[in-house]
């Protein structure tokens, strides 16, 4: 019986032709080449943050620095502001992402139901906001009129619903089996119970991918933070790193305690600032990677 089973498995296997194998190898080589090209700039920035001024001046590109210097990171740490900026950005990213996902999912779920009256009109109004906006000055006056100026709420509530992301979530809800809703309603579940106990648990891929989009947006938010925050204690890491980069060229050796490598070059400080701002997102990404591809492809063909 075991021999028969092995023979059946061998018959069911489809042998790839020579041309198919060649194409598969070429695809792997091309994908690997693209991955290396994408990775090289990050490696250069990371290596440059540990390099000396001489090496940054003499070499146009390198992956491993000849002399390793921690002066750029030492300078960033000794400013005493980067950790405060990291804390503020972490708070803004976590709370802001939760607020955006709450509004996005609760807005997308009703629009995914065909029996919801006026769904097409509301959806068209949402699409209009993707093409036109109120402008920077009216938005600033509106934020100030509401008393949100110099508050994190100005950064969290502005764009609390991204129309494009909302449409992706809506498409995902539409693809959920209708039988699950019907079975839940037969058991006596209300609309909110169906949403929180059926739709949300089944939507982990799209929630993870859209949450990552929102989190990256909050973490990298520089322009809005510069406009709507006027308190140095509330500055995000992007604003702090901007000030560090601007002041990097004015470093004075008599007020900073560096090692024998000397004063960190301005370029190395900029690269170190980029690494500090990028690493937290890179740490989070692997945990949502398995949901990312599936969530992004939702609604790619039809919406």
Summed up:
With 303 residues, the chain is an all-alpha fold. The chain contains 15 helices and no strands.
Can you describe what's shown?
- 70% of the residues lie in helices and 0% in strands.
- The chain has 15 helices and no strands.
- The radius of gyration is 26 Å and the shape is flat.
- By secondary structure, it is an all-alpha fold.
- It has helices at residues 2-12, 18-49, 53-58, 71-78, 82-111, 119-131, 136-145, 153-157, 163-175, 178-186, 191-199, 204-219, 223-228, 237-247, 266-297.
- Helix 10 packs across helix 11 and helix 14 (237-247) packs antiparallel against helix 15 (266-297).
Q: How far is the N terminus from the C terminus?
A: 51 Å
Helical content, roughly? 55-70%
* Structural class label: mainly alpha
Order of helices and strands: HHHHHHHHHHHHHHH
> Major sheet, described briefly?
none
| Unreliable residue runs | 1-7, 252-261
List the keywords.
303 residues, 15 helices, 0% strand, flat
Topology readout:
Layout: H1 2-12, H2 18-49, H3 53-58, H4 71-78, H5 82-111, H6 119-131, H7 136-145, H8 153-157, H9 163-175, H10 178-186, H11 191-199, H12 204-219, H13 223-228, H14 237-247, H15 266-297
Helix pairs in contact: 2-15, 4-15, 5-9, 5-12, 5-14, 10-11, 12-15, 14-15
């Amino acid at each position: 019986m075991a021999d028969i089973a092995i023979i059946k498995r061998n018959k069911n296997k489809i042998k790839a032709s020579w041309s198919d194998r060649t194409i598969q190898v070429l695809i792997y080589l091309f994908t690997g080449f693209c991955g290396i090209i994408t990775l090289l700039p990050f490696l250069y920035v990371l290596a440059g943050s540990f390099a000396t001024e001489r090496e940054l001046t003499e070499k146009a590109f390198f992956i491993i620095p000849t002399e390793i210097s921690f002066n750029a990171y030492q300078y960033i740490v000794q400013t005493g502001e980067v950790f405060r900026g990291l804390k503020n950005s972490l708070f803004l990213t976590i709370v802001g992402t939760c607020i955006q996902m709450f509004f996005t999912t609760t807005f997308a779920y009703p629009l995914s139901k065909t029996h919801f009256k006026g769904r097409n009109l509301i959806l068209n109004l949402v699409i209009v906001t993707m093409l036109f906006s109120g402008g920077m000055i009216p938005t600033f006056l509106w934020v100030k009129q509401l008393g949100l100026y110099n508050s994190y709420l100005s950064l969290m509530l502005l764009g609390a619903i991204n129309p494009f992301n909302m449409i992706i979530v809506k498409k995902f809800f539409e693809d959920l089996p209708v039988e699950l809703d019907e079975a839940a309603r037969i058991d006596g579940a209300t609309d909110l119970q169906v949403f929180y106990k059926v739709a949300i648990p089944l939507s982990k891929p799209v929630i993870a991918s859209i949450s990552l989009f929102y989190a990256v947006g909050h973490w990298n938010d520089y322009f809005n933070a510069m406009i709507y925050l006027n308190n140095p204690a509330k500055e995000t890491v992007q604003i702090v790193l901007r000030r560090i980069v601007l002041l990097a060229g004015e470093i004075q050796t008599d007020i900073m305690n560096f090692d024998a490598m000397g004063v960190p070059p301005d370029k190395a400080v900029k690269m170190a600032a980029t690494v500090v701002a990028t690493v937290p997102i890179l740490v989070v990404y692997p945990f949502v990677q398995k949901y990312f591809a599936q969530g992004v492809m939702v609604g790619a063909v039809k919406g």
